[in-house]
Specification:
By secondary structure, this protein is α+β, with helices and mostly antiparallel strands. It has ten helices and twelve strands. The strands form five sheets. It has a three-stranded antiparallel sheet, with no helix packed on it. It has a three-stranded antiparallel sheet with strand order 4-8-9. β11 and β12 form a beta hairpin.
């Protein structure tokens, strides 16, 4: 089955020029190749053709942050015939809320192109995403960027449900990967960390990433832009704090099941959460490049971090709360302001040039 697809307007998802669907499911291909459990999974192969995009690894500093953030937040439009597509499709976060799960956020899937001096971030490979109503048991993801929960024997066995925070954590690992392995858009040739993350098995990589999270300051590059390092450090610390919060609540839940004690986090943890929620008072709103979405990095009523749980399900934060824990960090806010000011100058210059013609 082949179709020509209409061109979309410049946006955060590049228009597909052609699409071809392989009728036979991948399970039949696996069976012919003699792969164990060939019927496990529900993938269908699509061949997609679009314009050439640039890899995010070519960017650094403010420009890298701009595209990286767009892939997480921004809205794009596309005219597509994929089963889940509509004329206007929101970005990763809103797609997840709508039941379309990417589940393979990685550096190779984060790309960009330039339109009138403005960078447009593109999160690629949605053709391998899944619907909330039709998730197969197979585990998708690119090992160096997968969330820690999924790099465990249970995670690799499909026993752990893939959540929004797992995709968001993958965005953070992309940030770490690019900032520590590339300089000025070029791959480092020596003293380059994480090479073994791309070659070891998933569980081993998970163990190495846990060790890195504990000791990440020991790998602080001397030649990395201080604001970008600050973003890396803040995001990794959020991952650490959130992991501790979940473990603490699981411990309290288990303790309560045995003794009937009240399930709550420590007063210290609760006060830390209150401090984090109040830190965002000085943040400003950002108007999107192709959308009127308000991008305020401020705390809102009902956004508090959970410090109590009565069931295991209560341990997980709402998706928007998880996202906001990163968006309210100081370097995220400062870089957002830099991007906004730069893009405003570009748009003003473009408007002036058009007027003079």
């Amino acid at each position: 089955m082949e179709r020509d697809l209409e061109q979309a307007q410049p946006c955060h998802f590049d228009a597909m020029l052609r699409m071809s669907k392989v009728v036979e499911p991948t399970s039949e291909v696996k069976e012919q190749l003699g792969i164990p459990e060939p019927t496990k999974g529900s993938r269908v192969l699509y061949i997609l053709v679009s314009r050439k995009l640039q890899p995010i690894t070519k960017l650094h500093g403010r420009r890298f942050f701009d595209v990286w953030k767009q892939c997480i937040l921004c809205t794009w439009s596309v005219i597509s015939t994929l089963p889940f597509a509509e004329s206007h499709i929101p970005g990763h976060f809103n797609l997840w809320q709508g039941g379309v799960y990417h589940r393979d956020v990685s550096a190779p899937n984060m790309m960009w192109y330039e339109k009138d001096g403005i960078l447009m971030g593109v999160l690629n490979d949605y053709d391998l995403s899944s619907l909330a109503s039709a998730q197969g048991p197979e585990r998708t993801g690119t090992v160096p960027f997968m969330a820690l929960d999924l790099l465990t024997p249970k995670g690799q066995g499909g026993e752990i449900k893939h959540l929004y925070r797992h995709d968001l954590e993958s965005f953070i690992w992309v940030l770490v990967w690019v900032c520590l392995r590339y300089r000025d858009g070029k791959l480092l040739t020596f003293k380059r960390p994480f090479d073994d993350w791309a070659t070891k098995d998933a569980v081993t990589v998970g163990e190495k990433k846990v060790s890195f999270l504990i000791n990440f300051f020991s790998l602080k590059p001397k030649d990395l832009d201080p604001l970008m390092w600050s973003l890396v450090a803040h995001c990794l610390q959020v991952l650490n704090e959130e992991s501790f919060r979940r473990r603490r609540l699981l411990y309290n839940l288990d303790r309560a099941a045995e003794s009937g004690e009240e399930i709550s986090a420590s007063d210290e943890e609760a006060s830390e959460s209150d401090e984090q929620t109040s830190e965002s008072g000085e943040e400003t709103s950002e108007s999107g490049q192709e959308t009127s979405e308000s991008d305020e990095e401020t705390s809102e009523p009902g956004m508090e971090i959970s410090t109590k749980a009565t069931t295991a399900a209560d341990i997980e934060l709402a998706d928007d709360v998880v996202l906001r824990t990163f968006r309210k960090t100081r370097p995220w806010i400062e870089l957002t302001k830099l991007v906004k000011r730069y893009n405003k100058k570009i748009k003003k210059s473009n408007k002036k040039n058009k007027t003079s013609l």
